[in-house]
Amino acid sequence: MATDRANIPISYYTKPLDIPIMNASPQVxxxxxAFAHFWEIQQTFNQMLQDYTAYxxxxxxxxxxxxxxxxxxxxxxxxxxxxxxxxxLKILTSQxxxxxxxxxxxxxxxxxxxxxxxxxxxxKRIAVGKENMQKNMEALDVLExxxxxxxxxxxxxxxxxxxxxxxxxxxxxxxxxxxxx
Length: 181
Hints:
Structural class: mainly alpha
Distance between the termini: 27 Å
Number of helices: 9
Radius of gyration: 20 Å
Number of strands: 0
Strand content: under 5%
Largest sheet: none
């Protein structure tokens, strides 16, 4: 899922945001702000995934040994990925109607024709399916906090406690990545 999310072309976010929305209704303006916030979270997620992938490929795979530090980094990555996914879903569920109004507004601009078919499809469908997004958000089982760092710690501890038996049971069976013996 993380790779699929990271593979969404940047233009899907930036091109709609480049279209002026002067004289738009407050709902359209709020939708644009929500979509811009959605894009900010995506950029942070992409950077986190890039950093983790570089760490894994350029450190773990090269040294051919997995340490407790590596396991901690994997857990932290999993927590952050869940938090960013949760934040994304929260925007899409709480401000989906505003984002849909933004998309509808864009359809009536001359700049709309400059977007590719896939970019148009993305902006029109990103906030559709609120019930399914709500279920996915609940399934993430993310604990909320006002402070991001506190939220990370809270969810890291939650992940550890929730999966303690599994983590300890698998510790003795740490599997190396393909190609490592």
